[in-house]
Design a protein that fits this description.
alpha/beta, Rossmann fold, Quinone Oxidoreductase, Chain A, domain 1, 21% strand, seven-stranded mixed β-sheet, 387 residues, 27% helix
Length: 387
């Protein structure tokens, strides 16, 4: 009889159900990951509400130990059973021009914005064999197209799950935003991605780091200052344009990175006003954009470059893991809550600001003892279970 795996499965908008699956056999070019911790991404909050696909196991910010490793898989990544690794969400082809330079996010095989058949960890339906495609599960299947990062053994589980969000911070603020010595940056939003951008900007040597947030973000703004932000602006009570002028001597900033879920159009218009008179860079989120009159003349006069905040390169995550492993940064301030498999619903909602108070980066620990459900209760819809 096949060994059973317990997982939290999304079955409808904002509904989770515990289910059991068979532990799959693997071929020579695949592997099986025993999940140690799965971080809750900000994108999981929106995905949990929208529910566009069939039932699936969410969770793509994963770290764990290789339980089974096929010979070809181990040779490709230089790994063996027992090794501790983190995975990227991308399931790319591995041989296109983008994959060959480590830009897996642009590969057609995993581009879920352009390819309706794209596969990714955390969003692939359970009807795609062998079902275990997400980290809110005791085990996850790693196909031949998996992208891995080796994870040092001394990093605590919750901090190990920060590799992808901090990698996004490196990508958006430093690689795409080009912040660094002599530069000033505004980071919109003090969530885990915004705070990752703060840490990346500080490590890159940015001269001025400004973070904007809402009145309800007071705790997160305090964390931003502890991570290296020079100034924080409460947009509910202060004029962002005036405060940025004040903090930069009237110059404006070199870079604006939007990590919020606000209307993209409004944030772009604000960002255009905040950058310097010439050669600013804006990194924006995609989303609803009501912008009847785009200020193209102002945009052109300032010689602005605008790029989307869309994922990360392989190297950005590697750099993030190096910084996590260094122990130089107070990452415990980011890692605020942990839940077992019965608490995935609350974990996602807490990340979205509804649920556990002051949540920033939340992790799911699949092997923790459930506090409100047991394997015998598989199939029951559950909404609690934090510890």
């Amino acid at each position: 009889m096949a060994e059973k795996v317990l997982a939290a499965v999304q079955i409808a908008p904002e509904q989770m159900e515990l289910r059991e699956f068979d532990l799959p056999e693997i071929g020579p070019d695949a592997a099986l990951l025993k999940i140690e911790a799965a971080g809750v991404c900000g994108s999981d909050v929106g995905g949990y509400k929208r529910y566009k696909k069939a039932p699936c196991i969410m969770g793509h910010e994963n770290v764990g130990f290789l339980a089974k490793v096929g010979e070809a898989f181990g040779r490709r990544w230089g790994v063996k059973e027992g090794d501790r690794v983190a995975n990227e969400e991308y399931l790319s082809c591995g041989h296109c021009e983008w994959c060959l330079i480590g830009e897996f996010r642009h590969c057609w095989a995993t581009d879920n914005f352009s390819n309706p058949e794209a596969l990714r960890f955390g969003s692939t339906p359970i009807d795609v064999a062998p079902a275990l495609w997400g980290g809110y599960s005791q085990y996850m299947y790693l196909p031949p197209t998996t992208v891995l990062h080796k994870m040092p053994s001394h990093i605590p589980p919750d901090q190990s799950a920060l590799g992808l969000p901090l990698g996004n911070g490196v990508q958006w603020a430093v690689v795409t935003g080009e912040t660094g010595p002599g530069k000033a940056i505004v980071i919109m939003g003090p969530g885990q991605q915004g705070l990752g951008s703060v840490l990346a900007s500080k490590a890159a040597g940015a001269d001025v780091i400004i973070v904007t947030g809402l009145a309800r973000d007071a705790h997160r703004m305090e964390v931003a200052r502890k991570l290296g932000a020079d100034y924080t602006i409460n947009v509910d009570e202060e004029d962002v344009r005036e405060k940025v002028k004040e903090y930069t001597g009237g110059e404006g900033v070199d870079t604006v990175v939007d990590t919020t879920s606000a209307r993209a159009g409004e944030m772009v218009l604000l960002a255009i006003d905040l950058v310097k008179r010439k050669d600013g860079r804006i990194v924006v989120q995609s989303g609803p954009a009501i912008m009847p009159e785009f200020p193209i003349e102002k945009f052109a006069r300032k010689f602005i470059t605008m790029r989307p905040a869309r994922g990360h390169s392989y190297q950005s995550v590697e750099l993030a893991i190096e910084r996590i492993a260094s122990g130089k940064y107070p990452l415990d301030l980011l890692c605020t809550h942990e839940f077992d498999l019965t608490g995935v619903d609350m974990a996602i909602k807490s990340t979205g600001g509804v649920g556990a108070p002051n949540a920033i980066h939340v992790t799911v620990r699949p092997w923790e003892t459930p506090s409100s459900a047991t394997p015998a209760a598989a199939g029951q819809t559950v909404t609690a279970g934090s510890r």
